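The material for today's practical consists of a large collection of protein records. An example says more than a description, so a record of this kind follows:
***
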Amino acid sequence: MPLVEKSRENYLRVTNVLYPFSGLQNIDADVLAHAAARGTKVHKICEGIVSGLGELGVDDETRGYVESFKKWWDQGIDIIEMERRFWDDELCITGQVDFIIRTTDGLAIVDIKTSSKPSKTWKAQGSAYAYLAKKSGFEIKKIYFLHLNKTGKEPKIYEYPVDDSFFFAVYVVYKHFFYKD
């Protein structure tokens, strides 16, 4: 078992596979680092809300995002998994899903976003997460991206189809052009 775990250190993260297609490399590194830190903080606060710990760590910068999240959460969301990492030993990829929820249509992946605008990579990211979750026995029917509003308004929900072939196409292109063995 330790050999398998050790080898997983070299697995590609889904977000790294999508990075060359994201346009993030065109954003100032300090701005990007600040946005990533804010996003991580908002995720942790949202985890605390879902876990019943409350709104620990909310500050002026995160308050609107948290209020936006609560508008979604207060609808009575049925969370099955939270912050679950999945692995694929054949493709050597890994991804961490924010939430798996139960809906009237079945299980759905939910990813929280605090970016200023939607990204074209979300469809591939969601498809990759659905693929990884399905490999672990979750029958994923939907993919949602919960785009939180920085001023606390209702979040926008982007729905994408479960489409393994789309993610595999991106993965093959990434491996061909960007992966160094």
About this structure: Residues 29-51 form the longest helix (23 residues). Residues 2-177 form a domain with the Lambda Exonuclease; Chain A fold (CATH 3.90.320.10). Residues 1-6 have pLDDT under 50 and may be disordered. The chain has one domain: 2-177.
